[in-house]
Every structure is written in structure tokens, then in C-alpha cells.
Amino acid sequence: DAGVTQSPTHLIKTRGQHVTLRCSPISGHKSVSWYQQVLGQGPQFIFQYYEKEERGRGNFPDRFSARQFPNYSSELNVNALLLGDSALYLCASRPDTGTGGGGTGELFFGEGSRLTVL
Amino acid sequence: AQSVTQLGSHVSVSEGALVLLRCNYSSSVPPYLFWYVQYPNQGLQLLLKYTSAATLVKGINGFEAEFKKSETSFHLTKPSAHMSDAAEYFCAVSLYSASKIIFGSGTRLSIRP
User: Fold this and answer.
1) From the CA of B92, how many Å to the nearest CA of chain A?
2) Does residue B54 sit at the A interface (CB-CB below 8 Å)?
3) CB-defined contacts A:B, below 8 A
4) Within 10 A of B23 (CB to CB), how many other CB atoms are there?
5) Burial class of residue B25 in the structure, from the number of CB atoms within 10 Å of its CB (0-12 exposed, 13-18 middle, 19+ buried)
6) What is the pLDDT of residues B50-79, one digit of tens each?
7) For A21-61, what is each residue's pLDDT tens digit?
8) CB distance B44–A111 less than 8 Å?
9) What is the pLDDT of residue A96?
10) Which of B24, B20, B27, B8 is nearest to B94 (CA)?
11) Alpha-carbon gap, residue A8 to B77, rounded angstroms
12) Helices and strands of chain B, counted as H and E runs
């Protein structure tokens, strides 16, 4: 079975540009979360989506947005890129319960999209 | 609010020695606790999780962790380190109904030959 897949794996942008990152969850998983991992730090929660609805948002500016599609895939968009947005962006899915809550909480991660902002 | 603190950003042990990575958590209610491992240029892989069943949790690759409520700790151990254990390890916490998992800052484990 395919795991969580993310694209692109690497990309370089310049300040002020925007970027779209894509994620396909494990088949059957309805919940997708996005995390930002700056070099040398732990992942920081950005968003969680369940059944196309936002279920959680971390402490990130409005330049960050996301959405989930009917097939449960997801996009993360970042506008007006700053140098500080350079990071590994991780997508994770999990087999949430019908409430969209955490369940046992286990996340299955993709290998990430490494964004460099120059 | 929940949080985790990982003591020691870098731990180095000899091959065959005991591995001990420390994690303390803060939560107002019994949490779920996790250890994840990240190899270079890869995503995170779950090692083990505590979900209020047995306090001693066994995971993959010979790792285990013990939940100690009195000490608010969830330390990760492995009796004998192997070269392939070299990686970054993250402790994490969540609540049952939470939409997010909160990660610690990570501990880089190095193995000396």
C-alpha cells in the first residue's frame, strides 16, 4: 500500500513569491495535517483537515492556507514568501474516528517538501 | 496546554551501550504520548505510543518507553545501541480529542563504533 505522498520534494522560491505544496494521504485516511519543520527543530503544527473541513490551526500567519479535496488529498499554500519560511513541510494522515478527533493520535508522515526561499 | 521537553539536544553512545533519551511532558489531563524517529532527509516514523493501557510500551527496532505519571516522564530506552539507530528522535503529546500532536525539539542520537 502506498504511504503518504508529497510533491514536489524540493523547490526553490524567491521572497514574495507564493508556493503550493501537495499531499495525498494513505488510502482510507480522511484526516490530513500539515507541519513545518525548520532545520534543527521539531515539527510545528500548521493545519488539520478532516472531511474537507478545517479542524485545527496552529499559530501561523494568514499567508498560510490549505484545503482538502473530495478525494482527501490536500494543498498547502503560502503567499508572500519570507526567508523564514524555508523549511521542510510535512504532511501526515491518520485514520480518524467519525468525529474527526484525534483517536489514538498516530500520524503517518510523508517524506516532506523541502522549501528554500532566497 | 500540552507540551513536551526533551532533555539533551544531542546524545552520543557507543555501539552496544544503553540508549536513554529523556522526555518530560506537561498536560492537564492524561495524554497520549509518542516517540517518532527521523532519518536524514526523510519524514517521521512512529517508534511507539502510549494510550493509557500498559505503562511500559514496546516499539519497533527494540525500543521501549515507560510512562511515569508521578514524574511526568516518558523516556525512551534501548538496551544495546546499533549503528543504524543514529537518527533524530522526537517525543510528542496529544489529547484524545485534539486535532494536533505537539512535538518536542528533538534529540540527535549518534552511535560511536
Assistant:
1) 9
2) no
3) 77
4) 24
5) buried
6) 887 788 999 999 999 999 989 999 999 999
7) 999 999 989 899 999 999 889 999 999 998 889 988 999 99
8) no
9) 66
10) B27
11) 35
12) 0, 11
